[in-house]
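Quick question about two entries, pasted in order.
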Amino acid sequence: MKEDMQAPHDDAKAPKNQPSGKKNGGGERRQRDNAAAASVTDAADRSMLRIGITHGDFNGIGYEVILKAFDDNRMLELCTPVVYGSAKIAAFYRKGLELQGTPVVQINEPAQARTDALNIINVIGQEAHISPGESTAEAGAAAFAALERAVADLRAGEIDLLVTAPINKHNIQSDLFSFPGHTEYLEASAGDGGKSLMILCNDTLRVALVTAHLPIAKVPDAITEDAIIDKIRIFEESLKKDFGIVKPRIAVLALNPHAGENGLLGAEEKDIIAPAISKAWERKIQAFGPYSADGFFGNGLYSKFDGVLAMYHDQGLAPFKTLSMENGVNFTAGLPIVRTSPDHGTGYDIAGKGKASEESMRAAIYMAIDIFRNRAIYDEMTANPLKKYYHEKGKDNVVLDLTKD
């Protein structure tokens, strides 16, 4: 089969995203939000969003799900993909899958990306040793090289969004990467001081985590009132800004079985979680619970809420993946950037066999685009709002300014 690896097209340059940098005070957080809003608005004016996609662990199913997702060229009507990886490795997997739809071209910079092709930027040497289904140090180093370059381009405005293929959290570890996963790395490298929140989501269910990649033995000590309040705040803000929900309802899960049974099976619900929920209400956040996780999901109560806050990784992800494995997405909320990922792992057991489903990767791309657009809409709707006034009946000369405390 003839490969479609082609030289870069210097004349195929899209305009760079150049944030205005305009800031209007209010401290570091407001400055960060204003800068992010400017970046979103500028990129939203483009005719086509440029999505950076990291190849993840190249011995896993990353290339397969990326190539399959874009083999349907209708995807190119939504975005211009830029894959950070290796043209040689992409050619290896593409040949094995016998794909001949969307052409694959090699470029040097995102600005050279063609709108009619799957564009690949080489981030590793040509002599990559491909061993589908095996964990190797070389694959880990390549996964980090792709992530590092993609984040740099994202921060520079060369790409608008980031979608990451799965990594092996062990073989990627090095002196340059000492994080439990993507979420923590992105908070440190692209958060600009913001705190991240892992949200697993699809069109109907959104599950966020108080603790993410943390050993279960360390979870109880990490469940504090401040941590829960902080995650509820970030979650509510994301549901409004990223998902377009005006007044979200958030369910908060318990830590212990049966929500602690009034202290019989644990005191965290009474001493920590319930007080945190009460303080959320003081901030006018609609948070409910704590709910026992088994009954909450078993009875379908999750369908009554806009978001669910779980205390730890498997408490939230096990039911979510049971309900949403084919179209689930991992979204990193709370940061000025937009990053999504399929909700599955490297899939070593099926790597190189053509059995991997691309549905979660496609859903991650759709979700990233939706969130990016939602942020642009939110920023436009909340920019320079009119003041709210209340005229008391019978006293037409009395006007109360409700924007003041």
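Here is the second entry:
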Amino acid sequence: MTVQNGSQSDTEPARRAAPLRPAQQEAPTTQRGRRTRGALVAAARELFEERGFRETRIADIAERSGTSYGTFYHYFETKEAVLNELFTMVAGEMFSASQMNSNVPDDPISRIEAANRQYFAAAARNAWLIAVIDEMAIRDPQFRDLKLQIRDLFLRRNEAGIRRLQKEGAVDSLLDAEIAAAALGGMIEHFTQMWFIHGVKFDEEAAISTLTQLWAQALGLPVPNRADA
């Protein structure tokens, strides 16, 4: 979930999120090449989510995509390169989903709730692939760094939003905005992982409402009585 704070927070973190390793060989220049490469990426995602990264072989990706072993290496150097690209794509989608629509009211509670909804939707689409990345991040320092780098996109935007509310006098100025952003962001991240990966489900409207209330109360924001709404 993300509390936004203007255009600077939208653009500055993106420059820090460059992939840590090459995700592909030279990009294809023909429509056929782009289709083939896209088929490899789609097949890799299906297999990583079904079997896990370590249990998926390059031969499996080639077979699922309807190509060949040699074709895979024409577009990617390693299996890790495909996973790196997939994670970068997913992170971009989730980061875009966290950007606030212009029709959302400007009050903090409405914006927190809208951001939670958008994050939930993106997490539901990508939870299993993120789980694969988490598994790799434990063993591979490069993937760990990439995960933390992408996570930093959300935390920095959350932090900027909290600092904005502090400047407006809506949030205690003594609150450590960086730690608050990490703690509250971690709450949403863990909650969606338990839901979409481990099947610990609740009523969605009640969950979003409760998480929004927890966010707001943690920051000291007044929460409207929904029974009176």
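Reply: The CA atoms of residues 159 and 181 lie 5 Å apart. The domain at 80-221 is CATH 1.10.357.10 (Tetracycline Repressor; domain 2). Hope that helps.
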